[in-house]
Every structure is written in C-alpha cells, then in structure tokens.
Design a protein that fits this description.
This protein has one domain: Rossmann fold (3-Layer(aba) Sandwich), CATH 3.40.50. The chain has 5 helices and 5 strands.
C-alpha cells in the first residue's frame, strides 16, 4: 500500500503550543500507511508580497510550496487568535495560493482542526482557514470539523478527545474526490 502523505501546518509558533504537541501526538500515532509531516519554518516565511514572489521567491516560501506539492493532503492544526486564524497560517495559505490558479494548494484535500482554551475551541479560526483555503483552490473537506474546547479537558491526555482527532485524520485520508474518479 502506498503511503498517504499528510502535511500538517501548525498555526502556533510557540514550541510548547498545545496544537503543536497535538500535531506531534497525531504524527506519532498515524495509522498504518499514513505519514504525517509537520511543516517547519512557517515563521521564517516573509509576509506575502507579490514584489518578492518573482523569479527567486524566498527560500522558506519555496520550501513550503514544495512540501505541499509533495503531500497528498494538508491538515491545519491551529488555535484561534482574536477570533480568527493566526497570521502565520494566513500567510502560509497566501504563499500557497500563488501563482494564481496554479498554487501548490490547488486541488489538495484540506482540513482544519485544533483546540483553544476557550468554550469555542477555535471554531472561527478553523472556519476562516477553510474559507481561505477554498478561495486559494484547495479541496476543503467539510466533513472534517473538530474545534475542541480545552477549558475543562486536558486535550493531550483525554483518550476520547484524542480519538476524535485521530478520526478526523482518518476521514481526511479516506477522502476520495468522486469527480476525479
């Protein structure tokens, strides 16, 4: 069986971020035949500017584009900042959307999940990431939705919560585009 490669974009730059640690837990427990790779260096990518996206775009942006192009799926695991997705994630999607109509994210199955220490679990961030990815040309999987509140539960140590995140990964991997079949 050929491995399904899932590139994970973590929306928090904090080394000890709960979402970063969640990505690592999911990576370590990926199902057989699935590899999760966490994209590194999102913080090194300059803010998108068409003037620097010419013949020699920044190396960090080129690297991200290559990682997404090589992946079969893209999974965002992110918190929420001020009711929306973190700027680092928005910037990554901006870079992945270019060149217009032919960016690395075009046609890629995409999902956004995560957790925050609020009663809402990051749902607006996830909605905004899905919306932006849709505009960028990704194939957003609407059935993969998990915004986990971290108010009364230890997300990283709750077997029931972790099972939901693992199921979200499995659903993203299992997605088949009927139109392409």
């Amino acid at each position: 069986m050929t491995d399904t490669r899932v590139l994970v974009l973590v929306g928090s730059l904090r080394a000890d971020s709960v979402n970063r640690r969640l990505a690592e837990v999911l990576q370590a427990s990926a199902p057989e035949g699935v590899s999760l790779e966490i994209a590194e260096g999102l913080g090194a990518i300059p803010f998108y500017n068409e003037e620097i996206d010419g013949e020699t775009p920044p190396a960090a942006a080129v690297n991200l584009r290559q990682q997404v192009a090589a992946a079969d799926r893209v999974l965002v695991i992110t918190p929420e900042y001020n009711g929306t997705m973190p700027a680092v994630l928005n910037n990554a999607i901006d870079w992945l959307s270019r060149p217009y109509g032919a960016g690395a994210i075009v046609g890629k199955p995409f999902a956004a999940v995560g957790t925050t220490p609020t009663p809402y679990g990051g749902k607006w961030s996830h909605e905004h990431a899905r919306h932006s990815a849709t505009i960028a040309g990704a194939k957003v999987i609407d059935t993969v939705v998990l915004s986990q509140p971290g108010v009364e539960v230890d997300v990283l140590n709750d077997d029931e919560v972790l099972a939901k995140f693992r199921a979200a990964v499995a659903d993203l991997v299992a997605y088949r585009d009927d139109a392409a079949a």
